[in-house]
Specification:
This protein is mostly helical. It has 24 helices and five strands. A hairpin with a 4-residue loop joins β4 and β5 (396-400). Mean pLDDT is 90; it is low at 1-16.
Amino acid sequence: MTPSELSTSIPRKQEQQPLYKPRVFERVGEDAKEIRSEMEAAQDRHPLSESERAAFIRFENALGETLEKIYSLSPKSATAYTEYLLTEKGRASFEKLFGISVDGDDSDSVKRFLLGHVPEILSANGKDRTNFFRRSNDYHEQSLFSELSATMDEDAAIDIRNATAPDRIHLLLTPEESLRRSERLRQFKGALKKFHSELVNGPHLGQEMERVLSDTLDLYSRRVNEMIIGSSQAAASLKEKRTLLGQESLSDPEKALLQLSSITENPETDLSRMDKVIHGASEEHDSNGWQKQVGEELARYADSIEEEIIKSTLHEKDSLENLGLDPERIGAKSLTFGETQSIGDELLSRYGLLSAFGSDTFDPDDPTPAPDGKWRFVLHERYDASGFSTDPKSKTVKGPRKDLSVMDVLPTLAHEIEGHVLQHTNKELLPLRIFKRSGAGRWAPFAECAAMRNQDFVSRNAFGTSFLPGPHYTRAMSKKLEGGSYLECVEAHYESMLSLSRAKRDAGILDKDGFRNEAVSALKRSINRAKRLFVNELGLDRQSSFLVHSKDTAYLEQTEVFRAFKEQGIEKLLYIGSANSEALRFLCGNGFVDPDNVIDPKFYSLEIWDRIKGNYTLDGKH
């Protein structure tokens, strides 16, 4: 029996009992109760003395500084879609940038060529290199879109049977940096274990001090383990290099990386296990005995969310008119980018976060923060296709420089500014260094939770309509767990997105052209988004039932997170960035956060709406 056969022959017995923590969706109710209990218990504990607290802060700051240095190590990599390099345009672009001609007339020979010329690729200007590989991705997406859209029937169904799955190669450009990061993580993990041992066996430091130190070491250990798992994924791409070029092609750092990693000859199973360690798993098992990341309970929840989205959308016109609003005016792109700029600046200013250095001082090619350390709201042509986003590194909220509808702007800025910006601001107020840069990890459902709640709250109060996350990722993940290929996951994601468009068409809200336009947009998005379920080193034509990337269930799980925290009266804690349940339990239990001092949204976006909504009423008057 081969190692591959052995690895897949034993999981049924190994995984009969749950091996992994439940996913956030399944455990958040208990987590919220425990956090509430920790807050109450902290009131009866003796706080650290002034000298103890100072000593602890020095110790944690040293741990945080070490972790930051490791976190700042940034191995470089690139993903090339080989079909682009089989075109004249792609070859010419490659030669112009990297100074060498592409050798290869099929996908595998192009892969071998790229793997053999990593030094030349690395030597190019970083921005130019990034743009080249982005073009290879865009080429594959556009090619696949053209292929699939040509099969679209009147109901917008597509036929994937004759479509060609894209082929790609993941290039590890700086393996020595990847090795350095992996080694330092393991060294730091060893140091944390040593500190634990000294804490248990060393001199007595006092009950409270020992508890706080133990909890801190646990917090760091969880984060380091997560980072080690993440660094192990780099080794998976080396398996393909070894297959294509042979063992002798590997450099010493690459060989060392493979020895350090836990990636076997079955990367899908290994990466799936790692994903479950980080993001948890359902208690449900598949037919082979493996715990699933997406269980029936989450799938049913996805269905219920979809029903609510469709119901809200179909009644959107009535909801607006019931509020005395004109649906046509609301839907029109009536806000100029200058008016949107003023709204964003006002929101930041109302929280005291607006930089004195205006948006015109921000350079997208040099995204450094403003000198005063405050936030800027930047509208730029470069961001026209990406919508609004928050970048904590440059302390900017970015958006498109174009006219938009008020229904798009106000709820979204409530999400970004009154959500994510406040989260980053609150975490900066914490006394612990781990939250300054690396964070506590596993925060995805919590990061979106409060921000999405803001968007929904403003949308409901201003326009009478809900704003809920779509279930599309979850549907695509379910298909992947059934053994679906990339193309099948694209179809599942696309069909999920079409549910709303078909309901709008059937209700007479969309005409034929409008329905077709939404279908086209959904197909483009699905081609892009379904790739998140497949790690770079795996072929997109593979049919494996192992899900190696389930992080994006967070978009659906976060609605349950807010509900559970609100039920316990602790929803303000969700406006602390880079935290998770364990981190919040630690912060509250050890007196490092006072909910009364957490900055929560005042919904100034709704005050702005009250001021301008007269422009959108049925009679056009205030």
